[in-house]
C-alpha cells in the first residue's frame, strides 16, 4: 500500500468529524488527536520494528519487550493504586506471562526464535495481559470495597486473610477472564480476528492463517488466566497487615486528592 | 468505687484515632472475668471501636491491652479472635443458608458443624430448626441477629462481645436473648461485654457497667451506678438529654 493510498484512508477520519460537528457531539478534538497519535505511534513502531528485524540482535528484542512491559505497567497501575506495591506486582506478572508463553513457543519449536515472531506475539500477550490486569484490578478493588463487612466478619471469627478475601478474589478472577473465554466461543462466527484478517489480506493461505490464529487464541487464554490469578494472589496480602487486620482501602477520590 | 475481681481484659492508656480523628482517648480500665459488663453511652462514644480493639480487628495507636494476663499482640490473631468472639449490630451474613453461616467458624478451621449441634444452637437463640436450610436473604432483621449470635457461640469464646444485639428485636425475642446470654455466662463462665442503649437492660442483665462518652470512660462500677450517677454528663445522658 502506498502512502498516497493510505492518505485516502483519512476519509474514514473525516466522516466521524463531520458527523460530530453536525450532531454537536464534541468529538472533533479527540478524533483528530487520536488520529495524529495513532499515525505517529504506529509509524514509529513500524520503523523501529524494521530496524530490529534487520539487526536480529537479541538485545534489541529484549529492549522492545521491556518497553512493552513498562508501557503496560504504566497504563494499568492507576487502576490498582490502592494496592501497595502494585507497580512491581504488575511487572512480575507481565514478565512471568512473557517468559511462560515464549518459553513454551520457543522451547517446543512452535515458532522460530526470530524477532519477526517474538515481538508481535509478545506484543499481543503483554497487551492482553494489560487489559486483563485492568479488568481484574477494577473488579477486585470494587469487590473489596463493597464487601468489607464480610471480610471483617470472617476475620473476626478467626479466619485468615486468605479465607476472608477468597470469595472476592475468585469472583474477580472469574469476571476478568470471562470476556476472553466468551469471545473465543464466537470467534470466526461473528468476526474474523484482526491478525488473521491481516494475514489473509496480505496474501497468506487462509488455513495457515487460521492455524496461527488458533495458536494466538490459546496463548491469550493462558495469558488471561495466569495474569488474573497471579495478580490476585500477589495483591491480596497487601490489603492486610501482619496482625491479620484489614488495612483501610484508599478510595479512588482520596487517591486523586493526594 | 473500688471493685476487686480477676480482670480478663485490661486496658491502659489506650488511644485510637481514625484518619487523625481521635475515637478513643486514654482508655484505662478492666473487665472482670466471668461477669457481665455493659457499656452504655451516646452514639459516637467509641464503644464499638473498643470491641474491635479487643477482638484484634484493629490495634491501638498507643497504650496496652492485656487479655488473660498476656499482651494482646502476643496472641496469634486467629486464636485471639476465637477466644474473644464478637457479634455486631450489623449481623453481617455470608450468602447462602443459615446452616452455612452457623458452620462458618468451624469451616474456617477445616471442620464441620454437626447438624444436631446447629439445631441446638438455633433452639438456644429461639429460632425454629426449619430455618436451618433457609437462605439468609429470606430472614427478618431479628432472625439474622439471632443467627449472628448463635454463630459467634460456635467458637465457644471465653469472652463474648455483644454490640447492640437486641436493638432490632421485639420485647419477647429480647428477653429470649437476655436469658440465653445469662445462661451462657453461668454455664460456661463466659465473660460478657454488652453494648446496649437500653439502660433498663443494662440494669437487669449487667453486673458492672462502663459509661462512655466522646471516646472517654466517664464512670465505671456496679450496674446500680446507673441509678445514682455522680458525673453531671452521665446524669444528663440517663435523663435522656443526650443522644
Automatic annotation (TrEMBL), chain A:
Sorted alphabetically, the Gene Ontology cellular component annotations on this record are:
plasma membrane
Membrane association type: Multi-pass membrane protein
Which InterPro entries does UniProt cross-reference here?
A: UPF0014_fam
Could you list this entry's UniProt keywords, alphabetically sorted. Membrane, Transmembrane, Transmembrane helix
Q: Does the keyword Ubl conjugation apply?
A: no
Q: Which residues form a coiled coil?
A: none
Main localisation: membrane
Q: Where in the cell?
A: Membrane
Q: Transmembrane ranges?
A: 44-70, 91-111, 117-137, 214-236
Task: Decide whether keyword Acetylation is in the record.
Answer: no
Q: Which family does it belong to?
A: Belongs to the UPF0014 family.
| Protein name per UniProt | Iron export ABC transporter permease subunit FetB
Native species: Oceanobacillus bengalensis
Phylogenetic classification of the source organism: Bacteria, Bacillati, Bacillota, Bacilli, Bacillales
Name the gene behind this protein. fetB
From TrEMBL, chain B:
Please identify the protein, giving its name as recorded.
Phosphate ABC transporter ATP-binding protein
InterPro entries for the chain:
AAA+_ATPase, ABC_transporter-like_ATP-bd, ABC_transporter-like_CS, P-loop_NTPase, PstB-like
GO CC terms on record?
Answer: membrane
Could you name the domain of life of the organism this protein comes from?
Bacteria
Which GO terms are recorded in the biological process aspect for this UniProt protein? phosphate ion transmembrane transport
Keyword annotations of the record: ATP-binding, Nucleotide-binding, Transport
Q: SUPFAM superfamilies, alphabetically?
A: P-loop containing nucleoside triphosphate hydrolases (SSF52540)
Q: Organism, per UniProt?
A: Oceanobacillus bengalensis
PANTHER family referenced in this protein's UniProt entry, alphabetically: ABC TRANSPORTER I FAMILY MEMBER 17 (PTHR43423:SF1)
- A single GO molecular function, which one? ATP hydrolysis activity
Where is the ABC transporter domain positioned along the sequence? 9-238
Keyword ATP-binding appears in the UniProt entry: yes
Amino acid at each position: 500500500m502506498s502512502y498516497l493510498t493510505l492518505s485516502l484512508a483519512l476519509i474514514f477520519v473525516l466522516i466521524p468529524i463531520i458527523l460530530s460537528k453536525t450532531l454537536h457531539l464534541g468529538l472533533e478534538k479527540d478524533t483528530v488527536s487520536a488520529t495524529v497519535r495513532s499515525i505517529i505511534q504506529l509509524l514509529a513502531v513500524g520503523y523501529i520494528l524494521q530496524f530490529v528485524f534487520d539487526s536480529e540482535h537479541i538485545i534489541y528484542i529484549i529492549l522492545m519487550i521491556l518497553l512493552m512491559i513498562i508501557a503496560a505497567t504504566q497504563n494499568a497501575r492507576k487502576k490498582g493504586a490502592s494496592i501497595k506495591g502494585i507497580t512491581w506486582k504488575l511487572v512480575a506478572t507481565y514478565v512471568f506471562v512473557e517468559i511462560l508463553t515464549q518459553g513454551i513457543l520457543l522451547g517446543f519449536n512452535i515458532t522460530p526464535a526470530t524477532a519477526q515472531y517474538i515481538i508481535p506475539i509478545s506484543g499481543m500477550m503483554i497487551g492482553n495481559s494489560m487489559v486483563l490486569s485492568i479488568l481484574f484490578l477494577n473488579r477486585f478493588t470494587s469487590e473489596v470495597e463493597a464487601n468489607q463487612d464480610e471480610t471483617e466478619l470472617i476475620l473476626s471469627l478467626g479466619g485468615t486473610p486468605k479465607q476472608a478475601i477468597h470469595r472476592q478474589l475468585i469472583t474477580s478472577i472469574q469476571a476478568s477472564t470471562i470476556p476472553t473465554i466468551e469471545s473465543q466461543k464466537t470467534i470466526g462466527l461473528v468476526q474474523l480476528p484482526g491478525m488473521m484478517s491481516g494475514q489473509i489480506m496480505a496474501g497468506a493461505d487462509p488455513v495457515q492463517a487460521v492455524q496461527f490464529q488458533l495458536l494466538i487464541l490459546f496463548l491469550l487464554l493462558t495469558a488471561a488466566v495466569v495474569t488474573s490469578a497471579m495478580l490476585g494472589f500477589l495483591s491480596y496480602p497487601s490489603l492486610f497487615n501482619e496482625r491479620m487486620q484489614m488495612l483501610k482501602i484508599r478510595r479512588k477520590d482520596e487517591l486523586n486528592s493526594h | 468505687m473500688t471493685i476487686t475481681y480477676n480482670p480478663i481484659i485490661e486496658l491502659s492508656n489506650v488511644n485510637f484515632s481514625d484518619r487523625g480523628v481521635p475515637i478513643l482517648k486514654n482508655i484505662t480500665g478492666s473487665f472482670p472475668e466471668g461477669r457481665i459488663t455493659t457499656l452504655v453511652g451516646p452514639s459516637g462514644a467509641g464503644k464499638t471501636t473498643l470491641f474491635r480493639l479487643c477482638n484484634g480487628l484493629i490495634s491501638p495507636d498507643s497504650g496496652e491491652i492485656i487479655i488473660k494476663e498476656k499482651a494482646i499482640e502476643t496472641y496469634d490473631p486467629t486464636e485471639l479472635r476465637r477466644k474473644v468472639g464478637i457479634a455486631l449490630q450489623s449481623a453481617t451474613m455470608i450468602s447462602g443458608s443459615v446452616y452455612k453461616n452457623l458452620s462458618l467458624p468451624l469451616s474456617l478451621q477445616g471442620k464441620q458443624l454437626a447438624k444436631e449441634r446447629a439445631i441446638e444452637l438455633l433452639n438456644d437463640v429461639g429460632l425454629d430448626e426449619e430455618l436451618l436450610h433457609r437462605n439468609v436473604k429470606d430472614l427478618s432483621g431479628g432472625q439474622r441477629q439471632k443467627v449472628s449470635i448463635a454463630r459467634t457461640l460456635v467458637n465457644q469464646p471465653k469472652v463474648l462481645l455483644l454490640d447492640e444485639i437486641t436493638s432490632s428485636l421485639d420485647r419477647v425475642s429480647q428477653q429470649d436473648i437476655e436469658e440465653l446470654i445469662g445462661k451462657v455466662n453461668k454455664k460456661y463462665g463466659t465473660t460478657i461485654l454488652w453494648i446496649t442503649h437500653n439502660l433498663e437492660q443494662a440494669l437487669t442483665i449487667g453486673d458492672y457497667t462502663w459509661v462512655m462518652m466522646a471516646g472517654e470512660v466517664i464512670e465505671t462500677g456496679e450496674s446500680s451506678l446507673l441509678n445514682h450517677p455522680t458525673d453531671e454528663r452521665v446524669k444528663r445522658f440517663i435523663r435522656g438529654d443526650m443522644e
